[in-house]
Amino acid sequence: MYKGPVMKPLSPVIALALLTAACGSSETGKAPGGANTVKVADALCRPTPNGRDMTACYMTLTASSDDRLMSIAAPDAASAQVHEMKTENGVMRMGEITGGLPLPTGQATALAPNGDHIMLMGLSRPLAEGDVVSLTLGFQKAAPVAVQARVGQPALPGAH
Prior knowledge:
Elements: H1 12-23, E1 27-30, E2 37-45, E3 54-63, E4 67-73, E5 77-88, E6 91-96, E7 101-103, E8 108-111, E9 117-123, E10 132-139, E11 145-151
Parallel strand pairs: 2-11
Antiparallel strand pairs: 1-2, 2-3, 3-8, 3-9, 4-7, 4-10, 5-6, 5-9, 10-11
């Protein structure tokens, strides 16, 4: 008689989270047992002009309890990182956020131009307006969230 590991069917909670991620522009990661959730809205990646092999992606993350964005997987990129923008001595600098991006309970955390954002580097293909980029966001507590980010130009601040 076989005594090895047995695969169990997906719980309804995980199946619903996967279905939600596949069907809408707002995705949610929910850990089994009703633990922390992270909602993702308005996911957008910039097009890559002139053969560039990197781009920035933006979105809004809202966690149901304190969490951290720890990783990004992107099949179309050699690497993906969460970056921050800060000004030091009058010079704007960009660099990777180590230790994860904090997501405070119930607060919408915007990844936006001139602020925290996701950098995709070593893209395997150019990204044009209208394309879709698949991302999987990994969190400290919540289940991973699959995101389908559209490719386009972000709205300029103050534009309606």
